[in-house]
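Request:
You are asked to prepare a plain-text protein record giving the amino acid sequence and the C-alpha cells, at your earliest convenience.
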Amino acid sequence: KSIAADLKLGNVYSYPNPAKSGQTPTLHIEVGQADTVEIKIFNIAAELVRTAELVNAPLTDKNSDGIFEYEYAWPATNDSGQPVASGVYIYYIKAEKAGYSPIAVLKKLVIIN
C-alpha cells in the first residue's frame, strides 16, 4: 500500500480515558503525512494548560489505511510541569502540511487523581 502523502483524517482518541490515579493519558492521532501536528490541551474553563508539537515524525508506522499514526503521552502536567487537577480536559489537534488545508479536531479526556 502506498503512503498517504496528503492529509487525511483517521481516528483521534485518548487512552485510557478516564486516566485514573497517575495513569498517563496518550493521545492517538491518525492523519496523513503531516509536516507538523500541534497539540493544545485546555481545562474546562478554556484555559490553556499544555502545548506540544510533533514535527515530521510519526511515532508508529502507517496503519492498513495508509494513514500515519502519531502518539503523544501527556504526563498530566501543565507547561510548567505542575500536575493538573482532576477534571475534564479538551484537546485540540491541528495537523498541517504545505499545500493542503489544515485538519483540526477537538476531543475531550478526563483525569481522575
